[in-house]
Design goal:
Elements: H1 2-20, H2 32-51, H3 60-73, E1 82-84, H4 86-97, E2 100-102, E3 105-110, E4 113-119, H5 124-128, E5 135-139, E6 142-143, H6 149-156, E7 163-170, E8 173-180, E9 182-184, E10 189-193, E11 199-204, H7 211-224, E12 229-233, H8 242-252, E13 258-264, E14 269-273, E15 285-289, H9 296-306, E16 311-314, E17 322-328, E18 334-343, E19 359-360, H10 380-386, H11 388-395
Parallel strand pairs: 11-12, 12-15, 15-16, 16-19
Antiparallel strand pairs: 1-18, 2-9, 3-4, 5-6, 5-7, 7-8, 10-11, 13-14, 13-18, 17-18
Length: 399
């Protein structure tokens, strides 16, 4: 914390100097209260520069990044607003493209704990049994409790083929996993037909760059194969690109329907509407969600629920609730900042509360999600025996 304050003060001092010399990037627009706060930080900087015992170990870059992270954490937009170093920004973009090296988990900072928002389908983490809601407590046997999200992510990452030990807390029980890092290139959209029915289970694992295109292809394939009804599985979908959520909503909703309501810092609200061809607007469907459904997955689920398009089944979602914009800084790092809150078309705030399903169903201690990649030769009865949420979503489907 001291280091973060020190560098914050250093940045403030630089900015104040730029102002005095008339540079374009100045703090001239800051109010009097902010100017006083910056002076206080500068005062702390003087203390640290004069008296910190280990001056040689101080990295200006690390202090700068720590200061920014501390500032963003103070905003309280846990797990969403965040800082990315240049390396992390590149990795974030690779993740949105659908391909990256890792163990295949989406991590979030929630209530000062590093939580698995979702394991990626087919990834080392998913195959080992790591689940949404698991709390990361140690990496390679060393505790990470109290550490920042970015620090934990850095410890989990590594070159392809190397191993990493992950310890999680699931309820009151600690579990350890030894994982081998790999290139993650799982399909964003996949589907399977529920045996002896006209229903397809379609899983959307993220809202990466071409999620809408991949989902459209999957829907066309299932329709060509004779499936006439749809269960859209958004469980453990950590979200991603907002434009993809809007485009996907346009496949199921009539043009002009509201996807979400955007509320900015001034309290002004704007209804964001879909366009598109509504190609699948007449297909009977239900939607599956759980606590790992976040961000764009929540936007889509809320839009389909509040427009009366689909019954939402499962468990309350993660509760992201803010719209991110990326602000790139001069060294290639970036701030992903929540610039607005979003509400469902019906006016429900989602931040910290999540999407409430129309039908609440728990998976159960002995249950497991049935996915298109893992269904194998299961019968319909075996699918439903394993996955109570899937069974209820099937029951809720319109004829």
């Amino acid at each position: 914390m001291v280091r973060g304050l020190a560098l914050a003060a250093l940045l403030v001092a630089t900015a104040l100097g730029a102002y005095l010399y008339g540079r374009s990037q100045s703090p001239a627009s800051l109010g009097e209260i902010d100017q006083e706060s910056l002076a206080l930080v500068a005062e702390a900087l003087n203390v640290v520069r004069d008296d910190y015992v280990d001056r040689e170990s101080v990295s200006s870059e690390e202090l700068a990044y720590g200061a920014i992270e501390g500032m963003l954490k103070a905003l309280g937009d846990e797990g969403h607003t965040r800082f990315l170093t240049p390396k992390e920004r590149l990795e974030n973009r690779q993740g949105l493209s659908g391909t990256y090296v890792g163990i295949g988990v989406q991590l979030e900072d929630k209530e000062d704990e590093i939580v698995v928002a979702a394991p990626i389908e087919g990834s080392p983490a998913e195959r080992a049994g790591i689940e949404a809601g698991d709390v990361i407590v140690a990496v390679n046997g060393e505790s990470v409790r109290g550490e920042d999200l970015s620090d934990v992510v850095e410890k989990v990452k590594g070159p392809e083929g190397t191993e990493v030990g992950i310890t999680v807390l699931r309820g009151d029980e600690e579990r350890s996993f030894d994982l081998r890092r790999a290139e993650i290139d799982a399909p964003v959209a996949s589907w399977t037909r529920i045996p002896a029915t006209d229903v397809a289970l379609v899983r959307l694992s993220s809202f990466s760059t071409d999620a809408a295109g991949e989902l459209r292809d999957a829907l066309q394939e299932m329709r060509a194969a004779g499936a006439e009804r749809l269960i859209l599985d958004l469980r453990d979908n950590p979200g991603g690109r907002l434009d993809q959520a809007i485009e996907i909503a346009g496949m199921f909703l009539e043009p002009g329907s509201t996807v979400y309501i955007r509320e900015n810092a001034s309290g002004e609200r704007e209804e964001v509407e879909v366009s598109g061809d509504a190609r699948f607007a007449d297909m009977p469907m239900t939607v599956l969600v759980n606590e790992g459904s976040a961000s764009s997955a929540e936007i889509l689920a809320g839009a389909l629920r509040d427009n009366g398009r689909a019954t939402v089944v499962g468990e309350t979602t993660f509760g992201t609730g803010t719209v991110l914009s990326e602000f790139v800084l001069s060294d290639g790092s970036a701030i992903l900042l929540g610039v607005a809150e979003w509400l469902t078309p019906g006016g429900d705030f989602i931040r910290e509360t999540g999407i409430e399903p129309d039908v609440q169903v728990k998976l159960g201690e002995d249950g497991e999600q049935v996915t298109p990649a893992a269904d194998g030769d299961l019968t319909r009865g075996q699918m439903f025996e394993r996955d109570a949420q899937l069974e209820r979503a099937f029951e809720e489907l319109p004829d």
